[in-house]
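Thread: Newbie trying to understand structure tokens

Hi all, I'm a second-year student working on a class project, and my supervisor (Dr. K.) asked me to get a predicted structure for one chain before our next meeting. I've only ever worked with sequences, so writing a 3D structure as a token string is new to me. If someone could post the tokens and maybe explain what I'm looking at, I'd be very grateful. Here's the chain:
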Amino acid sequence: MVNSLNWFEIPATDFERAKTFYEKVLDAQIHADPSPHMQYAYLPSEPQNGGFGGAIACGENFVPSMTGTTVYLDGGNDLSVPLARVESAGGKVILPKTAIGENRGFIALFIDTEGNKVGFHSLG
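---
Reply by user tm_fold:
Sure, no problem. This is what the structure looks like when written as tokens:
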């Protein structure tokens, strides 16, 4: 096993609101892939370069939460950039950019429009 993480899903109760939030925060187009039983949108990823991806999921059994597992999104070269877009997109920063130790980078936490606690990580 190369990576312990393979895929993640961020639950949403209002699919369009969540999709718009993550498009603004990540400054990226997010592609929706609806099915008869749920709404789904893929977040940016590059699996061909060894990365992994995730999605926004809205449907039965997808319940937003501030407890449980925390997913840390790639904050790019400096997580201050996407973090600065969180509140104007409707979310709330709950932990500003914080150093996590030498050669380990920085993290930040926010609450998205759906009530999920999500993080950013970057080396810079």
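A couple of things are worth pointing out once you decode it. The two ends are 27 Å apart (CA to CA). The beta strands are 7-11, 31-32, 38-42, 53-59, 71-74, 92-99, 106-111, 117-122. Feel free to ask follow-ups in this thread.
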